[in-house]
Amino acid sequence: MNFKLKTLIVGDIFFAAISFYLALNFRFGFDLAHNELHSLPVIRVILFTIVLITVAYIFDVYNVSKKKNRFDVFNKILQSNCVGFFVLSALFFLNPEWMIGRGLLAITLTLFISFQFAWHIIFRSVFGMPYLSEHIIIVGTGCDADIVAMMIEAAEGVNHKLEGFIVSDDCSEDTVVVPHEKILGEMEQLLEIITKVSATKIIITTPSYMNNPFFQNLLLNSKLLGVEISDVPTYFESVSEKLMLEKIDMNSMIYSNGFKCSRTVLIVKRFIDIAVSLTGIFLTLPLFPIFILLVKLNSPGPVFYRQVRVGRLGSHFTLYKFRTMDVDAEIGTGAVWAAENDGRIKPIARFMRKSRLDELPQLYNVLIGNMSFIGPRPERPEFVRKLQELIPFYSKRHFLKPGLTGWAQIKHPYGASVEESFEKLRYDLYYFKNMNLMLDTVILLKTIRVIFSQFGGR
Q1: Are 347 and 341 in contact (CB under 8 A)?
Q2: Domains of the chain
Q3: How far apart are the first and last CA of the chain?
Q4: Helix axes 70-94, 102-127, angle to 10 degrees
Q5: C-alpha–C-alpha distance, residues 106 and 94, integer Å
Q6: How far apart are CA 249 and CA 243, in angstroms?
Q7: Distance between CA 2 and CA 65 in Å, rounded?
Q8: Tell me: the pLDDT tens digits for 340-369?
């Protein structure tokens, strides 16, 4: 969670509390409000805040990287708070002790929507100011430098600005592919250029400086002046939230701070897996007759579909799903990926796959330990053998338990080719490198958003 996101959320928490306090005053008057505040159970205020912040996150309210006008910002905030109202109403119905009076709740929500909208507009305006922008210099003028420049331009943020390029010693006129008017000077002038353009970040795209003491000293001095030094893979990872596998080798993975399976995290994840799977089975079991009816209406045959998938460390296990294709769907073709608008998938089954209802039986796989709630998608052995031959590091994803949902599943559509599998591997290994419980929480919330938007299945 970056600084901007933390700041925005902390501001919303503050305004949620202020809205509650002001609503009490409007509703009961100052003297009575003071008494009501002391007698009000803290759980109600905490519940109100948690629900609204969580729903706002699911509705992408905190995605400041997207360029939105004021109407878009207000629309997102209004939608999320309307859904938050219904979630709170459902919780009050389940446990009346948590209930907030309808009048008080209505006033609080109205105030919070107003404060939240004003805060988000002010936040975007302040962080969009030039003196808060990130001023970037790229060292190099070749193809890699051009790629990084395009990444900076494509980044949907309000605080990135490419100042220009610095010519590296290993380039000639023939290898310069960036605009000549954007070239700021040579490496020897680095400190002067930093001062001139108020640079805050330098991205190195050429390896020639890595072992040169003179240039190493220049880069170290730049860092000591407060300038962030980055290479291409690191910058790519920070803006895209996936790994640049073309620029990664074994050593960079070995000496990286990431790619560690903390025993504590794994134990906590297993505890969460058991709790979530049991809760999910308990809540959805009464709905299974409806799902069974949908499967039967879709096509004749068994309700459940069993298939061998590859698990942790390459082990095989039987995965369970609600059947969404005909029993003989792969006769004559063998194992094939589901395609966009696949003719084997009828409308009812398409709805189940888009909403991921067909994957509910996998809660049993999570419960017995074949899978985790969050991890890479489990693939079929036939596909894994092929992909391991064609894609570097593909086997490394199998050091984690496969998941019911995961970083790749929410960031990229269903992968139905070698190229798409390579793209999803970028996200899988990003998750492996940065795996922690906070990231798992983010994935869980974004999964809810994906389900509501019916994105990610075929």
Answers
A1: no
A2: 3-127 (no CATH), 133-240 (3.40.50.20), 263-453 (no CATH)
A3: 31
A4: 150
A5: 19
A6: 12
A7: 12
A8: 666 567 677 778 877 788 899 999 999 999
